[in-house]
Amino acid sequence: MSDGGKRWRIKPRILRACTVGAVLALALVGLALHTGWGTPSAMGVGYVAAVCPLGALESLLGAGAFAPRLLLGLAAALIVALLVGRAFCSWVCPVPPLSRLLSSKKAKGREAAACREAGQLALERHENGDEPARAKIDSRHLVLCGALGSAAVFGFPVFCLICPVGLTFATIVALARLVGFNEPSWSLLVFPAIVALELTVLRTWCGRFCPIGALLSLVARFNRTFKPRVDPARCLRTTSGERCAACSTACPEHIDPNANRGIAAANECTRCKRCAEACPQGAISFPLIAREEEPDSSTP
């Protein structure tokens, strides 16, 4: 392992867990102190507001009217996605840790096997020079169209009623009202039950059904910053010709950071940094903007 790999650093998975925990704690503090800044589904201070981009689009379509605050919040969320891609999915969204918590040992084994298979496929494509044939849209985009269409037809954000992200924070709100105001509610039973049902029955929620991830991935196609870069001077594939698939095997999105020959395209990257953590040579980094002489491993 290179010297870079031996440095003492806080591991990305710990940072991710701390970030999600901090977001949840911030929501609880806001509810306890009545600050009014809301939750990540709809937060703000005064006239400065940020709303879930999907919820904002649904509300705009449902209302059929011009709403400046919603548009500003939507623009802010999309700008963030343009800068960091789908980072929300691994650093803020509570669904991935909840899904892991609810996963059985057998389900986790199937997920690990799928990652190994995807890693080997990417390696074989790299060695053979095969370019992956990927569909431009998938089932998530169909759910996204359904969410937006239903909002336009029924006049309100229908998907928000079953969104596991929103329901998670709605459960926190219901719990805070129970503790703070002694107001029991069926929400404390119904919301967690819906979330658990979605994440256990629809085991691949994030990869196949989440319209928020679909929307962020569309914006991330234009992203040029904080993308994974592989240093060819360190990578085992290029320095010694080893059949290393550590990075593509570690990626939960089935991306190949080395040559973008994974099952999923590079714009699906959530910046979880599992690839960098798994690389035995410390060859993967996430620079603000890659140097011109550095090869862009995310370009097919």
From TrEMBL:
<dbReference type="InterPro" id="IPR017896">
    <property type="entry name" value="4Fe4S_Fe-S-bd"/>
</dbReference>
<dbReference type="Pfam" id="PF12801">
    <property type="entry name" value="Fer4_5"/>
</dbReference>
<dbReference type="InterPro" id="IPR017900">
    <property type="entry name" value="4Fe4S_Fe_S_CS"/>
</dbReference>
<keyword id="KW-0479">Metal-binding</keyword>
<keyword id="KW-0813">Transport</keyword>
<keyword id="KW-0249">Electron transport</keyword>
<dbReference type="InterPro" id="IPR051684">
    <property type="entry name" value="Electron_Trans/Redox"/>
</dbReference>
<feature type="domain" description="4Fe-4S ferredoxin-type">
    <location>
        <begin position="260"/>
        <end position="289"/>
    </location>
</feature>
<protein>
    <submittedName>
        <fullName>4Fe-4S binding protein</fullName>
    </submittedName>
</protein>
<dbReference type="GO" id="GO:0046872">
    <property type="term" value="F:metal ion binding"/>
</dbReference>
<dbReference type="GO" id="GO:0005886">
    <property type="term" value="C:plasma membrane"/>
</dbReference>
<dbReference type="Pfam" id="PF00037">
    <property type="entry name" value="Fer4"/>
</dbReference>
<dbReference type="GO" id="GO:0051539">
    <property type="term" value="F:4 iron, 4 sulfur cluster binding"/>
</dbReference>
<keyword id="KW-0004">4Fe-4S</keyword>
<keyword id="KW-0408">Iron</keyword>
<keyword id="KW-0411">Iron-sulfur</keyword>
